[in-house]
Amino acid sequence: MKKIVPMLCAVALAACAAAPQKPVVQKDALYLSLGGQAGIDRLAEATVRELLNDLRINLFFANGSMAESRRLLAEQLCAISGGPCTYTGRSMEEAHSGMYLVDADFDAFMQDFAAAMNAVTVPADAQRRLTALFEAMRPQIVGQ
Ligand code: HEM
């Protein structure tokens, strides 16, 4: 028994030393690479500008308050990028309910969003991550 205990300890220590170290990823890394709140506000503003100039889909926005949509979009961008915000708007299903959006509408939105990210020079890696986060919302937005 006297020998077994130190042996077990040695095995356990060796296992710990061999365990791969998880890279430490800051929760708000994406938020920071967007330039924090100021960068996100600029991105939300640029997105709304692109949407309003897009003849394919701007009629959808004709009756709403774009100031409020921009505020909620900024809040949502802050929340999904790990920033210190809570999204207070409606769910994506609720917000787009009755619009009967199709994939082409969503694609147009994503193109406008890409143009906005370029306009405010969001770094390429952050662009890819944000695009993936928005793309994941497609099923909650299209066909509601
Ligand atoms: C990933 C894609 C999208 C995101 C993240 C997004 C996000 C949002 C957010 C946060 C709101 C405000 C929610 C609220 O009022 O509580 C909203 C509203 C709205 N969205 Fe989207 N949206 C997306 C795609 C689209 C598309 C493809 C269209 C149409 C082509 C669209 C049209 C609208 C309209 C018309 C409103 C209501 C505006 C108003 O009442 O002022 N959205 N969206």
TrEMBL record:
Matching entries from SUPFAM superfamilies are given as:
Globin-like
Q: Which residues form a coiled coil?
A: none
Q: Does the keyword Signal apply?
A: yes
Tell me the GO molecular function terms. Answer: heme binding; metal ion binding; oxygen binding
Binding, heme: 96
| Superkingdom of the source species | Bacteria
Q: Which CDD domains match?
A: TrHb1_N
Enumerate the InterPro entries for this protein: Globin-like_sf, Globin/Proto, Hemoglobin_trunc
Q: Any idea which UniProt keywords this protein has?
A: Heme, Iron, Metal-binding, Signal, Transport
From which residue to which does the signal peptide run? 1-17
Q: Is Signal found in the keyword set?
A: yes
Write one Pfam family the protein is assigned to.
Answer: Bac_globin
Know the name of this protein? Answer: Group 1 truncated hemoglobin
Source organism: Tahibacter soli
